[in-house]
Amino acid sequence: MEYKNPLGVDIDLETGVIPGAKKLVRRLGDLKGYFVDEKAYEELLKENPVVYEVYAIEQEEKDGDLNFATTVLYPGKVGKEFFFTKGHYHSKADRAEIYYGIKGKGGMLLQTPEGKAEWIEMRPGTVVYVPPYWAHRTVNTGDEPFIFLAIYPADAGHDYGSIKEKGFSKLVIEENGEVRVVDNPKWKE
Ligand SMILES: O=P(O)(O)OC[C@H]1O[C@H](O)[C@H](O)[C@@H](O)[C@@H]1O
Ligand SMILES: [Fe+2]
User: Where in the chain are the domains?
Assistant: First the structure.
């Protein structure tokens, strides 16, 4: 039997950086078609800001193993809609996930394949359980970076297709200075 080495790393709780992790950067340009207000999207695209960064420690895609990653989701809006992560189902759809809020303010939109949506607020210390089969997207509803940790099965994979095409049935927007979760007018069943 060949054993893997255990690993301990310290997440920088101010910046979300995991030393030695693989860094992924997603700019607004990587999120084409994701926001409802296309005019506001094109306007902000001139600056093409970084929307989020992911620091991941990933293992081979094997049953039984675990990956973990921090995400630094920057504050901002496209029209009324707060910045969010793409959102995905797992390729192995029955794989669950755990999120843990580290810094800032936001939440998670979850959705079943039938379009039933849930919104869970997250702040530092919040643990969110993502059950099998639910798509999940995080949203920054504050004015500082929203940083969280996620732990997920190494063989879960990311299935972006249906969210990219259809979006979530709910939007998280700012209206009169308040955070609102409203029906998505462009949602396609
Ligand atoms: O992949 P996205 O939907 O863009 O979300 C960004 C990332 O958020 C978390 O860190 C998850 O653990 C990652 O698996 C995911 O890739
Ligand atoms: Fe996931």
Answer: 22-183
Give the up-direction half-sphere exposure of residue 163: CA atoms within 13 A in the CB hemisphere. 26
Q: Is the CB of 86 under 6 A from ligand 1?
A: yes
ipTM topping 0.90? yes
- CATH fold, domain 22-183, is Jelly Rolls (2.60.120)
Closest atom of ligand 1 relative to the 149 alpha carbon: 10
Q: Is the CB of 152 under 6 A from ligand 1?
A: yes
> What are the structure tokens assigned to 150, written together?
């996620």
Across 18-96, the runs of DSSP E, i.e. the strands, are: 22-27, 50-57, 66-73, 77-78, 81-82
Per-residue model confidence as pLDDT tens for the chain (189 residues): 899 999 999 999 999 999 999 999 999 999 999 999 999 999 999 999 999 999 999 999 999 999 999 999 999 999 999 999 999 999 999 999 999 999 999 999 999 999 999 999 999 999 999 999 999 999 999 999 999 999 999 999 999 999 999 999 999 999 999 999 999 999 876
DSSP-assigned letter for residue 177:
T
CA distance 53 to 69: 10
Helix/strand/coil percentages in the chain, nearest 5: 10, 40, 50
